Automatic annotation (TrEMBL):
Domain of life: Bacteria
Pathway assigned to this chain's UniProt record: Amino-acid biosynthesis; L-arginine biosynthesis; L-ornithine and N-acetyl-L-glutamate from L-glutamate and N(2)-acetyl-L-ornithine (cyclic): step 1/1; Amino-acid biosynthesis; L-arginine biosynthesis; N(2)-acetyl-L-ornithine from L-glutamate: step 1/4
Protein name: Arginine biosynthesis bifunctional protein ArgJ
Gene name linked to the record: argJ
Site (Involved in the stabilization of negative charge on the oxyanion by the formation of the oxyanion hole): T125, G126
Catalytic-site annotation from UniProt: T199
Organism expressing this protein natively: Parasedimentitalea maritima
């Protein structure tokens, strides 16, 4: 499926040049889990002393790899760490077979790398409900270990794609006391994207030094301002995983460093936006700005109600400035709203104010704006100081085509 899809019209021009992160090496291979003629397994190995943080799907039907990763967070870090990811099969809803597959893969990686199985994390993405042919993966592990290198992150990003139409990467570098600290991340995600922790698979690496507990707190905080603010189709995956690994190779302790937090958030936002830009069948990238809510939390509820509305998303796909659908989405959200205080804008075009169509509104102005690839939709509730921004894409017939054929 992945190699047959046309590249998203919203995709960046090329995969970015990512800095080498000292203390982490990558390798990828074609194991034939589902896809033929493309890489579908990646391995990342981190040096001893690497700390690891993670957030995972809250789905009640989360996969065996997710459960295993959750159990392993916080284990001894002095011996090093490895992450193995496969695409093509999610190893979800596979009962005891799923647990067996995780155990076989982690043990094989542990033996090949000399790491304890407690420091081997795995993830799987793809079709749900089919046993993972883990023997195809374990057969490649020795080759993966032999091929580990510092510059293989782009190949790793390509190996974890499913219905993605482009590999996703982002980076940032800052100076701390005259020393360079680097951050680089990769992600996969295109469909089954809705915020309930991280939504998709994301792996971020830094050579900064930060304790496990501090890394975890920072990741959870920034996730709520990035990955938990995107949606493609309102569906939360069984396999969502976001992991952040700090090798400490730079020797720079970034605890409490605001510049590092800002840089990390920029990488997370970049990757989150790329997922939306690669939304299945997407032709428009949509930013929804909600202001005037009674709280930031309620503003986010309104924003996601708009972003997840099939009626709003299809109107955007059809380039129709149908503001009545935005009114509907606000009204159904469950958060506080007052019809007579509501204002709506498409970009800089004020469509409605104080619960009624603006007297200066011209339909042709908004219709022209809707032809753009990137659209900003603004809603002010007139109730308080709460605000939030969320990101989504339009809903086209391409989404149906991709998902109707997904298992074939």
């Amino acid at each position: 499926m992945a190699q047959s899809l046309s590249r998203s019209p919203l995709a960046p021009a090329a995969f970015p040049d990512l800095p080498v992160i000292k203390g982490v090496r990558f390798a990828s291979a074609a194991a034939g889990v589902k896809y033929q003629g493309r890489t579908d397994v990646m391995l990342a190995q981190m040096d001893p002393g690497t700390t690891v943080a993670g957030v995972f799907t809250k789905s009640a039907t989360r996969s065996a790899p997710v459960r295993d990763c959750q159990d392993k967070l916080g284990a001894e870090s002095q011996v090093g760490t490895a992450i193995l990811v496969n695409s093509g099969n999610s190893n979800a809803f596979t009962g005891h077979f799923g647990q067996t597959s995780v155990a076989e893969i982690t043990e094989a990686v542990a033996v090949a790398t000399g790491l304890p199985a407690s420091r081997v994390f795995t993830a799987s993405t793809g079709v749900i409900g089919e046993p993972l042919p883990h023997d195809r993966i374990t057969a490649k592990i020795n080759c993966l270990v032999d091929d580990l290198n510092e510059v293989g992150i782009k190949d790793a990003a390509e190996a974890i794609m499913t219905t993605d139409t482009f590999a996703k990467g982002a980076s940032a570098q800052i100076q701390v006391d005259g020393q360079t600290v680097s951050i680089a991340g990769i992600a996969k995600g295109s469909g089954m994207i809705a915020p309930d922790m991280a939504t998709m698979l994301v792996y971020i690496f830094t050579d900064a030094k930060l304790a496990d507990s501090d890394l975890q707190l920072l990741l959870a905080k920034l996730c709520n301002r990035s990955f938990n603010c995107i949606t493609v189709d309102s569906d939360t995956s069984t396999s969502d995983s976001l992991m952040l690994c700090a090798t400490g190779a730079s020797g720079v302790d970034v605890k409490g460093n605001n510049d590092f937090a800002v840089a990390l958030e920029s990488v997370m936002l970049d990757l989150a936006h790329q997922v939306v830009r690669d939304g299945e069948g997407a032709t428009k990238f949509v930013e929804i700005q909600v202001t005037g809510a009674v709280s930031d939390a309620e503003a986010k509820v309104h924003g996601l109600s708009i972003a997840n509305s099939p009626l709003v998303k299809t109107a955007i796909a059809g380039e129709d400035p149908n503001w009545g659908r935005v009114v509907m989405a606000v009204g159904k959200s469950g958060a506080m709203a007052d019809r007579d205080l509501l204002s709506i804008s498409f970009g800089d075009v004020l469509v409605a104010e104080k619960g009624w169509v603006s007297p200066d509104y011209r339909e042709e102005d908004a219709a022209e704006l809707m032809k753009r690839d990137e659209i900003i939709l603004k809603v002010d509730l007139g109730l308080g100081d709460g605000k939030a921004t969320v990101w989504t894409c339009d809903l086209t017939h391409g989404y149906i085509e991709i998902n109707a054929d997904y298992r074939s």
